[in-house]
């Protein structure tokens, strides 16, 4: 079945440091890939997405590139802020043609802590 | 444009009681998904519904759990005879009807269920 593997956290960085959160996936067919962010006590917010190989999703300074050859979708940001502290989830959505339907398969999440 | 709404935000039940969680999708969305997040874990898919139809319930426990999305009103996730292991955050997500954008799911703030 489909699966998503994320690097374990917590990841602690100083403000303005470079961020990478690794994400790799296993899926049949051609899934869409997502990054969601969860702030304490809140629901998930869509951060960015990519629907086909070599697509780059970007939002609020974050970006991730859909790499089919390495089955990866690593999240990066050039300069993090304290306000970026949250839990980040990588997810995939199976293509309807493969029967994956519309359900999202999530990684376990990576907690990011940004300090001054 | 109101987002996905869930209520209650917090629910406390004693073992053996019933828990009823409600979800109102975003305006114009006709697809609803329920996910469960256990402490320190990622989200796990439970069920996918359209109006008056359960499309995929492969993630639902076989007993005590049921879901519906009636023609009128919110989607309901019902847990009968709750046990302590049901304590978790339950998130609802919705997506639009249009196939090209159907894969993007928008999440509600969640209902945090505590079973005493």
3D architecture notes:
The complex is a heterodimer of chains A (116) and B (116). Chain A is an all-beta fold. Chain A contains no helices and 12 strands. Chain A has strands at 3-6, 11-14, 19-21, 23-26, 32-38, 44-50, 56-59, 62-65, 75-77, 86-93, 104-106, 110-115. The radius of gyration of chain A is 14 Å and the shape is globular. The model of chain A has no long low-confidence stretch (mean pLDDT 90). Chain B has 116 residues and is mostly beta strands. Helix content of chain B is 0%, strand content 51%. Chain B has no helices and 11 strands. Chain B starts with a strand and ends with a strand. The mean pLDDT of chain B is 90.
Key features?
heterodimer; A: 116 residues; mainly beta; six-stranded mixed β-sheet; globular; B: 116 residues; seven-stranded mixed β-sheet; four-stranded antiparallel β-sheet
Produce the secondary structure layout.
The complex is a heterodimer of chains A (116) and B (116).
Chain A: E1 3-6, E2 11-14, E3 19-21, E4 23-26, E5 32-38, E6 44-50, E7 56-59, E8 62-65, E9 75-77, E10 86-93, E11 104-106, E12 110-115
Parallel strand pairs in A: 2-12
Antiparallel strand pairs in A: 1-4, 3-9, 5-6, 5-10, 7-8, 8-9, 10-11, 10-12
Chain B: E1 5-7, E2 10-13, E3 19-24, E4 29-37, E5 43-50, E6 53-56, E7 65-68, E8 75-79, E9 88-96, E10 106-107, E11 111-115
Parallel strand pairs in B: 2-11
Antiparallel strand pairs in B: 1-3, 3-8, 4-5, 4-9, 5-6, 7-8, 9-10, 9-11
